[in-house]
Amino acid sequence: MNRIATTVVAAALLLVLPWVAGNDFYINLASQILIYAIFALSLNLLVGFGGMTSLGHAAYLGIAAYACAWFVTHAGLGQLPAAILALLLTTLTAAVFGVLSLRATGLGFLMITLALGQIVWGMAYRWTDLTGGDNGMKLGARPAPFGIDIAQPVPFYYFSAIAFALSFFCLWRVAHSPFGASLQGSRDQPRRMRMLGHHVWMIQFAAFVMAGFWAGIAGLMYVYYNQFVSPNVLALQQSAEVLLMSILGGASAFSGPIVGAVIITLVKNVVSSYVERWNTLLGAIFVITVIFMPEGLVPGCRRLWRRFRGTGLAKPAAAKIEAKSP
Amino acid sequence: MTGPALQIVGLAKRFGGLPAIQDVSLEVMPGERRLIIGPNGAGKTTLFNLITGDLKPDTGSVRLFGQELLELPTQDRIHLGLARTYQILTLFPRETLVHNVVLALLGLSPTRWNAWQALTGYQAFYDTARAALARVGLADSAERIVTETSYGERRRLELAMALAQQPKILLLDEPLAGLSQEERQSIQALLATIPREVTIVMIEHDMDVALAFAERITVLHYGQVIVEGTRTEVVNDPRTKEVYLGH
Amino acid sequence: MQFWVIQTLNSVALGGLLFLLSSGFSLIFGLMRMPNLAHGAFFMLGAYLGVTAMTASGLTLWWGVLAGGIAVAVFGGFLERFILRALAGNEQGQVLVTLGVSFIVADICLLTWGGDPVPIPAPLALRRPIFFEGLAFPTYRLVVLGLAVVVAVLLHLLINRTRLGAMIRAGVDDMQMARGIGIPVSLLFTVVFCLGAALAGAGGVIGGPIMGAYPGLDADMLPLALVVVILGGVGSLLGAFVGSLIIGFIYNFGTALFPDLAYVILFLPMVLVLVFLPQGLFGRTLR
After folding, report:
1. Does the N-terminal or the C-terminal CB of chain B have fewer CB atoms within 10 Å?
2. Does residue B182 share a domain with residue B70?
3. What mean pLDDT do residues C219-233 have?
4. Structural contact between residues B60 and B10, judged by C-beta atoms closer than 8 angstroms
5. For residue B193, is it within any domain?
6. Are residues B38 and B96 in the same domain?
7. Domain count of chain B?
8. Which helix (H) or strand (E) holds C28?
9. By the CB < 8 Å criterion, does A110 face chain C?
10. pLDDT at site A313
11. In a shared domain, residues B160 and B173
């Protein structure tokens, strides 16, 4: 697909969405989707590009959200200093957790990230003096970047759209940089990469920290949107949801996590209005996706499209390579 | 350059109760073409793994132009001028041939840490990569994906990636394995064009090509050096025949 | 003194429960190379099914244990046979599927039994403490410990003295070789998965008088099983036993002494092990 055309169309859609959407509910939903898209893109740096499946990514979203809320409401800091400190704390945690998690690979890595995520959840849940426990923590008011008031849905939506566009842009550049190529190489053939002079551990560690940082950005957006944060945001379920967004959309495609974020957020919001069984549905989507559509929707659809247009028997391997650019 | 390019002293490695390498010592001089032969299980690939750092030895030392390697992680050894090809192809299967070589070039360049510029913007890397591919006769296939190439082409790619790094010492682990007669001769011709700045140590089973290539030969058996010397010396040594035919 | 007696017994009882939970987890992980993230859900499901069987039939706890263990074993069997087997060779896929299943099970339990904790009564005879040397020993806790030891011994005999155990050990050591010498690996997987599930399910009921059955029990237990296995090593029964006792003590004394941070302290040994001993205290490497 012509990259410039896609970008222009996407930007145009983002711009006009509030008019198309109509009422506040859908505009807010769009903001949520954008925030989760950032979250999913951050995780996909690890999962799709790094080949490291983490079940503890919610920790970074949560730490940023809680830290920001705490710095503003309990430490009396201004919004900008609070945001910066929150991001710093999140990135530092990602660095420490990265060192611990990278003591293993594959499933061992997965288990460690899960356990570490649970530690953070446990702290939020039990250390009630600090975090308010189950009652959560409030953020008094949304910030006013450059003096612009984003308390209303439409301005906040544009704020989210800008944050999303910036995050997308940065992560895109990382993925297509020499570092990004090294990261993908380390995913595919770590032993070979070492034999070529690459410092695989350092590459993976750097990716881990970056992913944590961008999840922190999503965390800030989250607490600005909800003006509230509770331990739920740190639960295993949240880490599972964002992982599902990556897998469902397609971890090997850059746009995959975005598609996943759109679908999961929509389904979650729509379903929750009618029925309380979101968890069952989440679990079912997980099972079905992993068994029947492991490569995800975007690569899967691309492959079908290519076959439909008759450009020869597109082998899945070939399809997966092109799938790296949206 | 007076000292040896590669100096191994008293190297030993056991796997549980099994001694894979027992007290191996050898010296390869700069520019030399050394062949390592021995029956299956003699420890040849294990030796390579110990040199590259894929395995840690129990005792012994490995020096590259006088520099002790043993405390260094694999990637650091590569930066000292070591390169290796594998017996079982380890390429990046879903990437193009030129991308494979670019990854090899990046391994030695500080550019590999750049997380902002587009990789495709680094024309110099791609030009160098294409030149490396041309050298092994893969110029026309540069944009093809590895899974779409033949086994012979992939073997050449392994070689291109190693040569692109302009190594001081090149370890070739059965570079001819699985190739047709024609392809073997073609690779043999290619190996002959590698300049003397590169010291080559090769493991091979194909005696015709290997013997034509080798200046000195080390024969390994049960993890020990049985015979070592010039090609003529080793070929005529009765112990060599015994190793291959004896037991 | 009484305090220490109670706490120590509570710790070893919790350790015993954790052993019931994590022995199955460790076996499954060791043989199938896959951490079963539905294991906490198995524990919880067993507890709920057990107490339901007890209230429906009016029978005592031990029948509940049987009911819970068998029911969860059957459920585990279906899960393994029809879903996990479809992903044979794809361990990461299997892990994610077990995660999905854990969400479904947890939600169905919430739907069926509601949000309030369901108490599980201990057998009448075991409710009164045993008095010895002027100290009161909570009887049920002693029983749990005893049960865990019995199960540990039985498992040890199974693994080390039976043909099934030999097959399991072979599979844990070297799967390729085991297949090569004709061990029916698929069947073995199902058997071990059912065994693990049964242990978890039965454990849930046995733990009932101590913990009850409540929504979130699965989320509480799963990380404990993870930590025990990281601590004790994968596939090691001894590791699971020692690890369970260590965690039991830390969790119990931690909760008594530092309630706010107890949950976090629990993970400290795991962190230490990860930094200094990635293969765990007794077992195979986590890599």
Report:
1. C
2. yes
3. 87
4. yes
5. no
6. no
7. 2
8. helix C2-32
9. yes
10. 52
11. no
Quick one: what percent of chain C has pLDDT higher than 70?
97
- Average pLDDT of chain B is 91
Query: Chain A partners of B102 at a C-beta cutoff of 8 Å?
Result: 181
Q: Which residue of A has its CA nearest to B105?
A: A196
- Alpha-helical (H) ranges within chain A are 3-21, 24-44, 58-73, 79-101, 106-126, 128-131, 153-175, 178-188, 190-195, 200-226, 236-249, 256-274, 278-292, 297-308, 316-322
The continuous run of DSSP H or E covering B160 comes out as helix B151-164
B7 and B68 belong to one structural domain: yes
Please check whether residue B162 lies inside any domain of the structure.
Answer: yes
Neighbours of chain A (3+ CB pairs under 8 A): B, C
Those residues whose C-beta lies under 8 Å from the C-beta of residue C170, and which sit 6 or more positions away, are: C177, C178, C181, C183
Report chain A's mean pLDDT, rounded to a whole number. Answer: 89
- Determine the average pLDDT of the residues in C176-197: 88
Q: Please give, rounded to a whole number of angstroms, the shortest distance from the CA of B98 to a CA of chain A.
A: 13
Mean pLDDT for the stretch of residues A239-245: 94
Contact B204, B175 (CB under 8 A): yes
Residue of B nearest to A252 (CA): B94
Closest CB to A280: pick one of C37, C103, C229: C103
Whether residue B173 sits in one domain with residue B158: no
Q: Are residues B54 and B159 in the same domain?
A: no
Model pTM score: 0.91
Domains of chain C: 2-276 (1.10.3470)
Same domain, B179 and B157: no
Domain extent, residue A177, equals 3-241
User: B53 contacts in A (CB within 8 Å)?
Assistant: 194
Is B216 contained in some domain? yes
What local confidence, expressed as pLDDT, does residue C283 receive? 59
Per-residue pLDDT band for A98 (boundaries 50, 70, 90) equals: very high
Q: Is the dihedral of CA A201, A203, A204, A207 positive or negative?
A: positive
Q: Is B147 close to A315, i.e. CB distance below 8 A?
A: yes
SS3 B29: coil
Task: Give the torsion sign (CA, A108, A111, A117, A121).
Answer: negative
| Structural domains in chain A (count) | 1
Residues of A in contact with B165 (CB under 8 A): 196-197
For residue B68, the domain's CATH number is 3.40.50.300
Question: Is the separation of the CB atoms in B147 and A315 below 8 Å?
Answer: yes
Closest of B85, B75, B139, B144 to residue B113, by C-alpha: B75
> Is A322 exposed, middle or buried (CB count within 10 Å of its CB: 0-12, 13-18, 19+)?
middle
Q: Which amino acid is at A4?
A: I
Residues of A in contact with B113 (CB under 8 A): 178-179
Residue C96 in contact with partner chain A when CB distance is under 8 A: yes
Nearest-5° angle of CA C84, CA C279, CA A110? 45
Residues 6+ apart with CB under 8 A from C70: C198, C201
Q: Calculate the average pLDDT of chain C.
A: 87
ipTM: 0.92
Q: Which residue is it, tokens 């008594």? A: C256
C286 touches A: beta carbon within 8 Å:
yes
* Touching C: A residues 113-142, CB under 8 Å: 114-116, 118-119, 122-123, 125-129
Alpha carbon separation from B84 to A158, B147, B174, B217 (Å, rounded) = 53, 21, 11, 19
| pLDDT attached to residue A324 | 38
Nearest CB among C226, C260, C275 relative to A127 is that of: C260
**CA B80/CA A195 separation, integer angstroms:** 12
Query: Please, are residues C230 and C286 in contact by the beta-carbon 8 Å criterion?
Result: yes
Query: CA-to-CA distance for B200 and B192, rounded, in angstroms?
Result: 11
Q: Is residue B75 in a domain?
A: yes
Residue A318 resides in a domain = no
Q: Which domain holds residue B40?
A: 1-81+168-187+199-247
